[in-house]
Amino acid sequence: MSFANATALSATELLYKGTDFSSLSCLERQWAAWYIWIGNPIIATGLMSFLLHEVVYFGRCVPWIIIDAIPYFHKWKLQPNKVPTPKEQWECTKQVLFSHFTIELPAIWLFHPLAESVGMSTWQVPFPTWKAVLPQVFFFFVFEDFFHFVAHQALHTGILYKHIHKLHHKYSAPFGLAAEYAHPAEVFILGFGTLAGPILYCVFARDLHILTVYIWIVLRLFQAIDAHSGYDFPWSLQHIIPFWSGADHHDFHHMAFTNNFSTSFRWWDHICGTDNLYREYKKKLRAAKTSMKGASKAQLEAAEKALQDEFEEEGIKAEAAVGAKAKVQ
Fold it and tell me: Which GO biological process entries does UniProt record here (predicted)?
């Protein structure tokens, strides 16, 4: 027997002894085949986790890069006068890759051994049912949203903003690639909220499968990238789910610096009043459009830009005030 066959047999015996592969779905069989092929569950899980993150992140960014390059779509861009240049996108990509390999790769690789130690399944088959998966993913969304709401506000204070979060606010009109354009410390802080939910769930419930975590991560990446896309289409999710955040909500945060600190949902900003300027902006925008009924498209766009400039100017002042406070500290 060859070494390769012996390794495969060993992996099968150790991980899947007694498993009836004929009863598994095609995806479950492929899942088992991956672990058997790699032969080491720790390497197999770490490699799959990191590859999933990279493929989903950059794969989801590509459509937004294409959309930014096609003028037809700019009528749905929230700040149409600020389309990212290829140079900006490349500079952003370099910083994102740096954070991915220096911060996210170690965090992703260490997450699953830690989670396994408190009850998470990785190589095991069959997979959990959708009835089990859906409430778990919903819990992760709710937990991360609250964590992000609190941590994000902290990052807007004094030295935390000056030395960490300021990098993410380089672009007052964000674009898809900028979702994870941030200081490595910020990537670690906010990334903790993404991974802490599954770990806490494991500690108390002990019935979590990493497939559920993968579903959560994919949805979270889609949410983050779409929120930074800078586009509000009529079919965007916030028009279907009223409490969903989306690009319309987060774009204002980048434009005006303050307000809208949540990620996925709008409710904490609404409850805590940290969307007051955003609501004022939307109210003024609606009033302007009503008063200019019958005006040309160019006139409406000019009025909207003037209003955006007004709130952006106030945001610049607020950012300067935070910077001045940091110097005092």
Answer: lipid biosynthetic process
